[in-house]
Automatic annotation (TrEMBL):
One of its GO terms (molecular function) is catalytic activity. This is Flavoprotein. It comes from the Bacteria. Residues 8-144 form the Flavoprotein domain. InterPro entries: Flavin_trans-like, Flavoprotein. It comes from Streptomyces roseus.
Length: 184
């Protein structure tokens, strides 16, 4: 299938990031041209795969802002998926703290009117923190589709390194039909 839409896939450092190559392939099979952006820690976690991920997407994998005057190496996004989105990334995003590339791109997408989907990945203890619900409410009020709880990611107990199942298909399904005009 020839890609007709551009997806910015942004990932935080949570265990589901190790499945990102399969997620990219699934998105590509759905007609998405995928550009992969990572938080700095996520980039560190998958450092040995960065060249392969760039080859898979056909675009540079980004985790840092470009320098002033440098050209943008990604086409404009038709939709954005931020998953897995950690407790830290979600709270920073909701508060507008854009010192990290992935969070900055997600924050800007809201202002551009780009359809945005996010799926948190956190344990139940962090999800119980009062700021977490406030951040999810802020993002929802801004038009972000937040896949948390039934139909999305359900937080598990503290301790396991990896959630038993991260519902990547639900995140990609939420993007079906998403498209946005390219704004200057």
């Amino acid at each position: 299938m020839t890609p007709t839409r551009t997806l910015y896939l942004l990932c935080s450092a949570a265990p589901p990031v190790f499945d990102v190559a399969h997620v990219i392939e699934d998105a590509q099979s759905r007609g998405w041209d995928v550009c992969l952006g990572l938080t700095p820690t996520a980039a560190h976690w998958v450092a040995g795969s960065l060249d392969g991920l760039a080859a898979l997407t056909g675009h540079p994998v980004r985790w840092q802002y470009k320098l002033p005057g440098e050209p943008d190496v990604w086409p404009p996004a038709d939709a954005l998926l931020f998953a897995p989105a950690t407790f830290n990334s979600l709270n920073a995003w909701a508060l507008g703290l854009t010192d990290r590339f992935a969070v900055g791109v997600a924050a800007e997408a809201i202002g551009k009117g780009t359809p945005v989907v996010t799926m948190p990945c956190t344990n139940a203890a962090l999800a119980a923190h009062p700021q977490f619900d406030q951040s999810l409410a802020t993002l929802r009020a801004a038009g972000v589709s937040v896949l948390h709880g039934e139909g999305g990611f359900v937080p598990g107990p503290v301790g396991p390194d990896s959630p038993p199942h991260f519902p990547w298909p639900a995140a990609l399904n939420a993007l079906d039909g998403a498209s946005a005009p390219h704004l200057p």
